Structures are given as structure tokens and as C-alpha cells.
Amino acid sequence: MSEECCGPDDPRKPATTMVRRLQLSKPLTTGDACCGPDDTAAPAKGRHHDDGEQTHHDEHGDDDEHDHGDGAEVRPPWWSDTALLPSAIAGVTLLVGYVFEWVGLPIPALVFQWIALLAGAYTFVPGAIRRLLRRRLGVGLLMTIAAIGAVALGHVGEAATLAFLFSLAEALEDRAMDRAKEGLRALLSLIPDTVRVSQLNGDVTIPAAEVQELDILVVGAGERVATDGVIVEGRSSLDTSAITGESIPVEVGPGNAVAAGSVNGSATLRIEATADGRDNSLTQIVKLVEQAHALKGERARLADRIARPLVPIVLFAAALVAVFGFIVGDSQLWIERALVVLVAASPCALAIAVPVTVISAIGAASEFGVIIKSGEAFEQFGTIRTVALDKTGTLTRNEPQVVEVATAPGRTDKDVLALAAALEATSTHPLAAAITAASPGAPAAQNVAEEAGHGITGRVGAVTVRVGNTRWLDPQILREDADSMAGAGMTVVVVEADGQIAGLIGVRDELRPEAVETIAMMTRLGIRTVMLTGDNERTARALANQAGITDVRAEQLPKDKADAIAALVAEGPTAMVGDGINDAPALATATVGIAMGVKGSAAAIESADIAFTGNDLRLIPGALAHARRGRRIMTINIGLALAIIVVLFPLALFGILGLAGVVLVHEIAEVVVILNGVSAARRPAAMRMPASAPTPEPARVHA
Predict the structure, then answer these.
(1) DSSP secondary structure string for all residues of 163-215
(2) Element containing residue 496 per DSSP (H, E)
(3) Is the pLDDT of residue 643 over 80?
(4) Which of 23, 1, 679 is closest to 360 using CA atoms?
(5) Are strands 386-390 and 574-578 parallel, antiparallel or unpaired?
(6) What phi and psi, each to the nearest 5 degrees, are found at residue 574?
(7) How many other β-carbons are positioned within 10 Å of the β-carbon of residue 312?
(8) Which of 68, 104, 295, 459 is the most exposed place for a label (fewest CB within 10 A)?
(9) Given the DSSP bridges, would you call strands 236-239 and 263-264 parallel, antiparallel or unpaired?
(10) Does residue 90 surpass a pLDDT of 80?
């Protein structure tokens, strides 16, 4: 977090799309800028202290000692974490030193106190000096000056206590940051290291990163899918919970799309890769997560604005206290108090108050399928009071279905569907698939001709059949049925046989089964919902009423959607949820843009601030509750951090607390802030969704 207090050391490293280089295993740390070292002087091999800046390259001269291997790192248990070793040595030797002092052996006591001081100072003094040489100030410098001053005044024990507590707090903070990011690292483990590929001479095993588009992958039972693809052979079930957050396995077979990271069920599948191993839907998710800390939110910027000038202000205040001592003639007393003031007013807790919360919350969100691109997006998400939703593909399945059939006298619904399916068998119209699915096995018609903008004509046996819209074919005696279907949000298809109306087919893109529950959940959260759609007014309102949405904006072009969102944003923080290219302008205009499903359009995902890897709409209210809670935690942390400074400063200035007491209170408060921030990772109650979505109302087919 060097940037939090003093600005960036170096330009950020460019992100890479290489799957094995998209490592999220380097934990963010506070560094000397805010709470201690840029680097731990004795880091464990493979343990990184990097906040996304190239600070260590400058300070170590090179980065050879850091492990840049491909494997994701794992946080070791605390008893074997060598990053805690300096603090452990400092703590043990400090205790031994105080024991010797208590029994009246001053020389051994002094020796052990010096060992404790050197062990603790080893973790932050070198980094503080390097920063000072680069004309950078940080809390580590305050602690270094305080320790040197205490030693100069003969208080080696207090200096050792300061070094021990400060180094311990830093080590614990690093572990907290590591823990917060483990959820993000886990995404990388979803890609297997190797994969079997079917070739002419048999199956061969290759690194997953070398998979090319159109390769045929052989995925056995229980194995993970290495990249996106389409099943060409085999039937099984897929566990996609790690990718989409959906707990029910999905039955799949030939022709079904498969996402990278899915776990195969009990049967072997052969999958044709539609993306190579280095650039698929899962690596897109990882790339989005990699960007999660690139931007800071409002509260982070507030913490920066307060913390950054505090370091020089504290140094100046301490200098004034020391000068006052010379003026009044009691220099030693006031120099001691100046050193205590340095520690009491350090903005350590303030600097970590927001980042640890953001990292914890974003990492937790990624585990239940919500990928948040930045801290700024996360914080803004917590302010949302209005959510605008696209209809097609977001509120609805984007899979039109036949939901109602009305027939003329002497006809049955089966007859009407068979006539229409015969003509639609070779059509590419979006409604054709719905009609043919409702009457499978219907023989294709002869002499089929399409009337552009109207419908289709052909012969089924000896019968001349026309299928089209109500503008082309008059429903005649079924006019009332046609109006009723249209009022219910259906697209009405008229079927005519030998010049006589045979029947009507109502086709509709049905609401997702969880849509009603989602709108109700958002209403309980006090969030206003709006539907934006390019569909006609009657269809839009029918589906909106069914979902429980009262504010409907229909017949919207992409620009109209963006204008509508701009108007809503002017009224208050607004989120836009969509998945298509036509939603991209609105997503970019909204306070927070949300792309539903990583397989939505690339334009939508690129324009959005948040991407949901699954399609369960209940992720929206759950994620909103999560962001609100994280925002509350940030506010509490900032208030607590400021309160610590306000309370400790006068206590230090007037000698009520000595150096050891101030250090102890300060570091305890810092640990409390860290633990409170880490609590943002807890999954909100709103995200504990039922194992399955509510069963949708069955389609109504009337004769």
C-alpha cells in the first residue's frame, strides 16, 4: 500500500492475458508507506510483498530472490510461516530480556533487548531508509526515528517493544491480505495443468495452456474442462458451481457448450475446443479479477487524502514538541514525548482501513460468481438505489417457447402446430425453433417460400399453408384470442390452411424462474427496479407485470437506453444489468454496469464494471447486500482509525501514555481494523440462495 500514503513508486506492471502469468498469488501489503516495510528483510522463499507496483525491483536491486514460478502459492500455516520468524525472535528475546531485568541481571537483559530490537527493526528499518533516500516518507520512518530516539535516551527495552509489536502487526497484516486473496487465487486452480487431446495416433497428454481451438479434448469422469468448447461425443452432467455459483449439475450432451473450469460427471466426454487454453471464459474472469485493485473507490481516496499528508504533519508536530522542550529547559522529557507523538499519530490503521476490506470483499464476491473489476466499482455498487434491467436474455431466458395455442373449429392444437412446424422446419427465423420444438418430427413442407416481413408459404401434402404475423394474415374468428395473446406479451403466429384460419400460436420468451423472487428481494432492500427493452410496449408490460416491475421503458434503441440510464443516474446511483451488444452504451453510462454471464457479448463485458459468471438473477440482490455491508465496514474502519489518532495524540503529548503503551494500543487497534476488514469476506445472508430456482409455471396450451 505504498501508494496509499505517498503515491506510486513506479508505473504499474502491465496485465497479461497469459493464463499462467495471470497470477493473483502476490498478496498486497501495506509497505513502508503506511505501516512498515516495503519488503520484509527476511522474506520467506516464495512469499511476495507486492502491491502491484515495482517497489521491490528498486529496493532489492533485482528480484531473483522472489519466486516467479507458474504455480500459485499457498499461504503456509502460521507455525511454519518464516515471514513471522523475525517477530517471533523479537518477542521471545524481549520476554527473556525483561525476565533478566526483573531478576536483577542488567547486562544479559540489555543483550536480549538488543537482539529483540534488531530482529524487529530488521523488518522495517531498511525499507524506511531506502524510501528516505528516494525522498519518500512513511510510517516505517516514524517508527525508525522513534526507536533510534528511544535508544539514544537509554530506553532500549521500549525501543525493542516498539520494534516487536510493529513487526508483528505487519506480519499479521500480510497474512490477512494473503487470506483475503486466496479466494482470487482459487480461480486459477480451476484450470487443470494438463489435458488429454484426441489425435490420429491416439490420445496424448499436453499442457492445458497449449490447447488450440478445434482440438478434441478427452475429459474423463471427475476431470475439469481445460477450455471452452462444444461436446461432440458423450453424455454426462457438469458441475459448474465454481464458475457460475449454480449448485445443480447440468445435464449435457452433443452440441451443448461447456465452459472452462467445469467439472465432468460420471461419463467421458469429447469436447471440441472453441477457445485456446490461454484465452477462454475462465481466463477472462481471472483477468477481470486481476484488475480488481487497480482503481480505488471513494473511501479509499478519502483514506489516501487523510493519510498521505499525515506523515509529514506528524514529523513536524513531533519536531515542535522537541523544540518546546529546549525552550522550557526540559529537553529530555519533551524529546521522549515527541517520540511517543510520532508513534501515536501515525496513520497506519487509517491506511489499511479500506484496502483490506476491499480485497476481502472482492475476493469473497468472486467465489460466488461476482467478478468486480475495481475497488471503485465495489464501493459505488454499495450506493445503488435503482437497478435497470434489460429484458431479453437478462430477465428472460432468451429462448422463445410456444406457450399457448388457439384453434379454429374442427382443428386441434396438434394439427395447428404440425402444419406450422412443417413450414418452419427449414426456416432460420428466431420463432421457427420454438415452433418446431413444440411439434418434433413434423415432415418438411414442399415448395416453401418466404414472404419477407410477413411469413412463409408452402405445401403440406395437398394443403397450401401460410404461416405469418397478424398484419399479413387476419385472425378472423380468432381475433379476440389474438388480442388476448398479445396482451399477455406473446408474439402471435397465424396458421392458415387452404385459405381458412386453422389456429393461432402464441410464442413468448419466458421469464427466468427466479425473476419474480429477484425483484421481490430487491424491493425488500429498498431498491427501485426498471425494465429497459427494445420490445413493444404490450409485450414489455406483460412480462414486467409478471415479474413485479412497474417502471417499464419499451421500444428502446441502444441510444435510448443510454439516455434513460443517464436520466436515472441524475436522480441517484443506478446500476444497469444487461448481456448484449445493444446494452453496452447503457452499461458504460450507469453508475455501475453489470454484465450477466461471462459468455454474454464481449462489448457488454468490456463496458461493465461487474460481471456475473452465472445467470441466476438472485446474484444481483445478494451482491448488492454484500457491497452495502462492505461499505459499512469501510466507514467503520476509517472512523476507528481516525479515533485512534485523535485519542492517542493528547495522551502521548501530555505523558499519560509512554512509548510502550502507545505502541501496544496502536497495534491492537490496527489488528482490530484488519479483522474487521477481513470480516467483509463473510458471505451475506442474501447470497445463501436455495439449492434450486423456483419451478416456473408450466406453459399453458389451450385448444
Answers:
(1) HHHHHHHHHHHHHHHHHHHHHHHHHHTTS-SEEEEEETTEEEEEEGGG--TT-
(2) strand 491-497
(3) yes
(4) 679
(5) parallel
(6) -130, 135
(7) 11
(8) 104
(9) antiparallel
(10) yes
Find out whether 256 and 230 touch, Cβ atoms under 8 Å: yes
pLDDT tens sequence across 438-469: 888 888 888 888 775 578 899 998 899 999 88
pLDDT in tens, 660-695: 787 778 778 877 887 888 888 776 665 554 444 443
Asked which of 180-194, 246-260, 550-564, 612-626 is least confident by mean pLDDT, the reply is 180-194
| Nearest of 349, 411, 341, 388 to residue 553 by alpha carbon | 388
**206, β-bridge pairs:** 195
- Beta strand pairing call for 610-612 and 592-596: parallel
Instruction: Reduce the DSSP state of residue 579 to 3 states and report it.
Output: coil
- Among the listed residues 431, 569, 555, the one whose alpha carbon sits nearest the alpha carbon of residue 504: 431
Catalytic status, residue 509:
no
In whole angstroms, what is the distance from residue 514 CA to residue 523 CA?
A: 14
Q: Residue holding cell 547486562? A: 107
The single residue of 276, 304, 390, 509 carrying the catalytic annotation is 390
Helix axes 85-102, 106-121, angle to 10 degrees: 160
- Take residue 73 and report the three cell numbers written for it: 502459492
Domains annotated for the chain, with CATH where assigned, are 194-276 (2.70.150.10), 372-397+512-613 (3.40.50.1000), 401-508 (3.40.1110.10)
Nearest-angstrom CA–CA distance, 55 and 39:
8
Cα 699 to Cα 341, 392, 401: the distances in Å are 73, 18, 9
The larger pLDDT score, comparing residue 580 to residue 140, is at: 140
Q: Which residues of 32-48 are buried (b: 16+ CB within 10 A; e: fewer)?
A: bbbbbbbbbbebbebbb
Alpha-carbon gap, residue 628 to 630, rounded angstroms: 5
**574-578 and 463-468 beta bridge pairing:** unpaired
Whole-angstrom Cα distance, residue 545 to residue 552?
A: 9
The better pLDDT of the pair 396, 605 is held by 396
Query: Does the pLDDT at position 241 exceed 50?
Result: yes
Rounded CA-CA distance 360/539 in Å is: 42
Would the pTM of this model clear 0.70, i.e. be above it?
Answer: no
The more confident residue out of 534 and 327 is: 327
Cβ atoms of residues 564 and 553 within 8 Å: yes
Q: Are 259 and 222 in contact (CB under 8 A)?
A: no
Q: What is the pLDDT of residue 384?
A: 93
* Residue found by looking up cell 501496544 in the block: 664
